[in-house]
Amino acid sequence: MKRDKPKQAHVPRFYVSAPLSGLDPINLPGDQAHHLAKVLRAQPGDPVVLFNGDGHEYLASIGEIKKSNVLLAIERSLQVVRESPLRLTLAQGIARGDRMDNAIAKAVELGVAELQPLFTARGKVRLTGERLEKKQDHWQRIAISAAEQSGRTVVPEVRTPMSLSEFLEPPLRGLGLVLDPGADNGLNATDHATEITLLVGPESGLTNEELEQAKRVGYTPLRFGPRILRTETAGPACLAALQTLWGDLG
Asked: What letter would DSSP give residue 95?
């Protein structure tokens, strides 16, 4: 007796860095093709959702599965609204290993628009040259994966890591907040803003000198609750609160 193929629990989503408005087949290469064909065990005719950062989702179907790639046929596009009305930048002191990876992934899920890794005085990670390029590429892939999973139509840019001093040189745009367990005020004392930069230190936090430097250029010290959060928790938790107050989680 022939058994029906089990229905897919969800339609897989993939980011592709290519124009998607035409009618030409899309070649899904490498790891994405392997995940679709081998992990999800998709078959010709199954639906797939694509996005490339232009604010649309593109409904496609599998045309052909090859050994190292999958060909997709685009059927139609949909304009969806899943990006936050807030423009949030997370300036994150670089943390070690999975802590930095988790901070980036959760920030993307929560709607951050841009991520800026920072070298700080107490940070334990020191990267230069090829190692720095590889790490930035790794973080960008994490951002892509988080955007795929969370239904976003835009992938936030993970900018080239720089020192905190370099980051603070250009004039601050919008509201700047720096997490400081010793600050007097919490979010309830913060003025409403639509463009916000959140500065978070690494595992051991920012030094007093770094906090003073941030305050001199316009950042407001922020005490986020009575407990001291880990670096990989602090940024996403505060972003969630900002989205609840002024964004699209309220």
From this structure: -
Model pLDDT for residues 120-131, shown as the tens digit of each residue: 998 888 878 889
Per-residue model confidence as pLDDT tens digits over 39-57: 889 899 999 999 999 889 9
Q: Are strands 56-65 and 47-51 parallel, antiparallel or unpaired?
A: antiparallel
By the 8 A CB rule, do 158 and 139 touch? yes
Strand partners, 23: none
8 Å CB contact between 99 and 203: yes
Task: Report the share of the chain in percent with pLDDT over 70.
Answer: 96
Q: Taking each helix axis as running N to C, give the angle between helix 129-150 and helix 98-109, from 0 to 180 degrees, rounded to the nearest 10.
A: 40
10 Å CB burial of residue 88 (0-12, 13-18, 19+) is buried
DSSP string across 121-175:
TT------HHHHHHHHHHHHHHHHHHHHHHT-SSPPEEPPPEEHHHHTSSPPPSE
Which token pair is 42? 């998709």
User: Alpha-carbon distance 118 to 166, whole Å?
Assistant: 9
